[in-house]
Amino acid sequence: MAEKAVIRQLQKPILAVDVDSTIADITAPLLDLIKKEFGKDITREDMTEHDMENVLHEPKDKLHKLLEFVWAEPDKIPLVDPDIPGVLAALQSKYEIHILTATLGDEATVKKWLADHNIPYDKYVHVNLPTDKQNYNADVFIDDDYEVVAAVSAKGKRALLVKQPWNAILAKIHTPSNVTVIDKWDEAEKLLLMTLLRR
Question: Cα(183)–Cα(199) distance, rounded to whole angstroms?
Fold first, then answer.
């Protein structure tokens, strides 16, 4: 029994990190595609809902195709925050980092993009739907999807919500317990290292 307790103490907590709009800033190339496909000139600030069909009033299947097309040109996708590689490198010393994503990008392409941007991680996991993440065995989640962080919060897990136009209103109305909204990734580093020290 004592040996099991020691093993648990030696195991790093698992940090599950999303890709699209959490690490990879797919918004600018997506807006370019929306303009070409639908002739709609919208800005990031116009994207006030996570479900794009509610904003654009276009079929969901066509919008999903655009998300695939974004990853067809990964060189056009920048980091959400230039500090992300350094922050994750610092956190990897204390956490086991799992990339947990429902991205429509091809897995090989996404993994190459992560490598090209020096994103450290220990495991890559793809789920069918963002809401599937709530069942994943992680201790902390970093995501831009309000529905995801609310779901993991309801299960007693901790989450950081990367602030984006599509989650800002919901987060302002109600931030679920165990959820912290962050504007910049250096906040994630401070919060998660401080939390670990208090364990």
Answer: 25
